[in-house]
Amino acid sequence: MATLAHPESPATSRPAPTYGEITRDIVATLGNPGRTWYVVFGVVLAVLGWGAFALLYQIRFGLGVAGYAPPVQWGVYITTFVFWVGIAHCGTLVSAILYLFRSAWRTAVYRTAEVMTVFAVLTAGLFPLIHVGRIWYAYWLIPYPNQRQIWVNFKSPLLWDVFAVTTYLIVSTVFLIVGMVPDVAAARDRVSGWRKKLYQFAAVGWRGTDQEWRHYLRAYLYLAALATPLVLSVHSVVSWDFAMSIVPGWHTTIFAPYFVAGAIYSGLAMVITLLVPLRKAFKLERYIHEDHFENLGKLVLLTGMIIGYAYVVEYFTAWYSGNPYERSAFYNRAFGDFWWATWTMIICNAFLPIFLWFRKVRRSIPAMFVLSLFINLGMWFERFVIIVVSLSFEYEPYAHGHYTPSWVDWSILAGSFGWFFMWFLLFAKNFPMVSIAEVKEIIPMPRKERAHA
Amino acid sequence: MSAPLGVLAAFRHIDAAAHAIRSLKEMGYRDFTVYTPAPNHEISDAVGHRVSPVRLWTLIGGLTGCASGFAMTLWMSYDYPIVVGGKPLGSIPPYVVIAFELTILLGALSTIAGLIFHAWRTRRRAAYDPRFTDDHIGIFVPCAAERRSAVRQLLQGAGAVEVRVES
């Protein structure tokens, strides 16, 4: 991991920051926030408050206030659940998979991605509860014998989902916390006041001794090795929520890899969306720069091409199957009531990333930001198309239906963004958003004798 | 934690610190503590610890999770038998998902437990300086008063930027 690998951009002649500068610059991002932060935080809280009001309204008057209309009983909530779980996947990709691949560039961006992961799973986890309507019965999902001594049904993919998402939340949280310990210790040694007390507690006495690093690095390696298959499994399990049923448009074996690629794709887009304002606000341009956006752009391009391929294969399989229900379901997707959702998804997810073949686009931060917003939008619509459009157009023409989300649906969707950004903003001002120790790790320390360097 | 008596040195240069560590080991010192702001192979090679036993915790935790995942699902299926979808009561393929997730969960949690346990077990009382999380490498050598000047000379000779006697 000691090599600073940017083979594709030898032209950049940025001098590497020294250890002292790294500590100073990153610790400087902590501390009292400015007025902009408070304004943004206020807006975020207002949006969250509105979403909370809509949720309370729904709890009071029942699920009927959401736009559900038979046969569409999975709507915006499940769409948004899958959307946020998907967002969460990039964090583990960047922090664990790229760690195993020893990519040096990940060190500057992985903390942001991990924080995004944890809070995105936290957001996603709310939606099954919101969706069940009678939120006070949510504990029925936990395996315990009910009044009649019946256990939960382990053959149901919905229950696999409970295990997968809970495991993902716990493992990604501990991964984030473990990764943060040396950085919090570095911050502890620099700040004063109540923050010092907070960091003293959070650093659990870390001093960076040889023994601590010895156990820490091993533990981190194995956590990364465990998180890697986990991230692939979680969205596969989410996809089986659909693929295990016999709904036309859902019942395909391509779903697991298709969902995983889509999840990583949307997560990478969200990371870019978050990094662009973050590096400006925190003056971290020296640590997060064009090289990082270019590498992220390449990953977006890769996963975007997989997504585009999956779209093509879906339609091809529907046609090639010769199954009239599959065929009509996919015809309905492209030319039915929801044609606008389908074409939004196809244009945003399969066509716009084509621009990323150009190096100029990958290295242009405004362009990457705009692209990432479109991809976020497109990926939300992808889940909407898969879920709502398939359900509205099943076997019986008599039972075909339509679905229009109500103001409650939209408010709770907006509130989920408020919830996510509330946590993200609170975290960003209180804990280092760029890993101090890992950025140092890829920069060689000064030596006395240059001979054998 | 009050620091024991000894000599605390701060280094700025990685090769100087590694050299000091090797010299200390040649002199027979084993209980010194090295602080680095970031993990570094040169230092860890010089210190020469064996591979951390944390990996054993991962293995045991993972196997426990796998076994308990299958045990829980199978036992619950037979404890109150209900046929679902015409499938066998204890259907292994769907239970693989539960067992897999619990493998990861318990594997990860026991890795953390192992990390905490071993870091606590191998913790030594030693003097510390906040610069060691910034840009200095620290070496603390606990030693008796009569050895201090020899250790001090060794550390200074190796290239320490500051040597302090803790008393």
Structural commentary:
The complex is a heterodimer of chains A (453) and B (167). Chain A is an all-alpha fold and 453 residues long. Chain A has a single domain (23-441), classed as Formate dehydrogenase/DMSO reductase fold (Up-down Bundle), CATH 1.20.1630. Chain A is 68% helix and 0% strand. Chain A has helices at 19-27, 35-61, 76-100, 106-131, 157-188, 194-202, 210-243, 255-281, 290-321, 324-335, 339-351, 359-362, 365-391, 407-430, 436-441. The longest helix of chain A is centred in the middle third of the chain and has 34 residues, at 210-243. The radius of gyration of chain A is 23 Å and the shape is globular. Residues 1-11 of chain A have low confidence and may be disordered. Chain B has helices spanning 14-26, 41-47, 54-79, 92-121, 148-158, and strands at residues 6-11, 33-35, 137-142, 162-166. Helix content of chain B is 52%, strand content 12%. Chain B has 2 domains: 6-49 and 125-166, Alpha-Beta Plaits; 54-121, no CATH class. With 167 residues, chain B is α+β, with helices and mostly antiparallel strands. The two termini of chain B are 14 Å apart. Chain B has 5 helices and 4 strands. A 4-stranded antiparallel beta sheet of chain B has the order 2-3-1-4. The interface between A and B is large, with 64 and 66 residues.
In short:
Chain A is an all-alpha fold and 453 residues long. Chain A is 68% helix and 0% strand.
Corresponding CATH architecture of the largest domain in chain B: 2-Layer Sandwich
Question: Could you describe the largest sheet of chain A, including whether it forms a barrel?
Answer: none
Strand content of chain B: 5-15%
Q: What share of residues of chain A is helical?
A: 55-70%
Radius of gyration of chain B: 25 Å
Q: How many E-type strands of chain A?
A: 0
Give the uncertain stretches of chain A in residue-range form. 1-11
Q: Structural class of chain A, please?
A: mainly alpha
How many strands appear in the DSSP assignment of chain B? 4
Structural class label of chain B: alpha+beta
What's the CATH topology name of chain A? Formate dehydrogenase/DMSO reductase fold
Mean pLDDT of chain A: 90
Question: How many domain regions of chain B?
Answer: 2
Spatial strand arrangement across the major sheet of chain B? 2-3-1-4
Shape of chain A: globular
The CATH homologous superfamily of chain A is termed Formate dehydrogenase/DMSO reductase domain
Radius of gyration of chain A: 23 Å
Uncertain residue ranges of chain B = none
Q: What is the N-to-C order of secondary-structure elements of chain A (H for helix, E for strand)?
A: HHHHHHHHHHHHHHH
Largest sheet of chain B: 4 strands, antiparallel
